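Box 4.2: Ligand-aware structure prediction
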Amino acid sequence: MSKKRQYDSSYIKYGFTEIEINREIRSQCVICTVVLSNDALKQAKLQRHLHKVHPTLKDRPPEFFERKCKSLKKMKLGPSGASVASSQQVLIASIEISQLSY
Ligand SMILES: [Zn+2]
């Protein structure tokens, strides 16, 4: 049995949150939503991602990433499970229906 790496809540300072995929904890970038392998669940790799991919954000405080993380999770867990795009389509459809009735 290989020892699985665990997400540490301090990793948010590198812009990473945890996500469970196939019963395995992985790290997900809250900026570009990329999911890294479990093997990448170490500070150096997370830090490297932040510095290479989001160099302009490396000096942001952890609160910045926490806010990003919250809106990311909210996006995924909508009340109806519908994405923003599809609810806009529903709105357009209902406008069309109301126009037809005139
Ligand atoms: Zn990223």
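In the box above, the bound molecule is zinc ion. Helices lie at 43-53, 62-76, 84-100.
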